[in-house]
Amino acid sequence: MAQFKEAGRQELEKSMKEDLEKLQATASKEEAEITRKDFDGFKKLFHRFLQEKGPSVDWGMIQRPPEDSHLNKTYNTEVPLVLMNSFNTNEDTNKILQKYTHCHVKIHTFNQSR
């Protein structure tokens, strides 16, 4: 059974590597080096993820924090909403955030690993 699981993990990594290489081939010359670094980092994280056994997070222990707008009103402050993007999500995130321009919360975004 352990050999079967290991073979499955290896196949997932191989498949992911192939898909990332195809995606990398579509990057412009200007973005090629940044994309390669992003993908290298992702491959390391994916490998680590596949090595873990059991659940990585006990969701029953996670408590939802108060909404930023509630904190801002209660304490007369400006607590920003900070969103971390991964590669290839920045455009989608910006489109979604346009819907929330009426909210009274400052929103900051950044790309992981940059």
UniProtKB/TrEMBL annotation:
It holds the Pfam family UDPGP. Pathway: Glycan biosynthesis; glycogen biosynthesis. GO terms for biological process: glycogen biosynthetic process; UDP-alpha-D-glucose metabolic process. The keyword Nucleotidyltransferase applies. Gene3D superfamilies: Spore Coat Polysaccharide Biosynthesis Protein SpsA, Chain A (3.90.550.10). Keywords: Nucleotidyltransferase, Transferase. Its EC number is 2.7.7.9. It catalyses: alpha-D-glucose 1-phosphate + UTP + H(+) = UDP-alpha-D-glucose + diphosphate. It comes from the Eukaryota. Residues 1-20 are annotated as: Disordered. The keyword Transmembrane does not apply. UTP--glucose-1-phosphate uridylyltransferase catalyzing the conversion of glucose-1-phosphate into UDP-glucose, a crucial precursor for the production of glycogen. Homooctamer. This is UTP--glucose-1-phosphate uridylyltransferase. It comes from Acipenser ruthenus (Sterlet sturgeon).
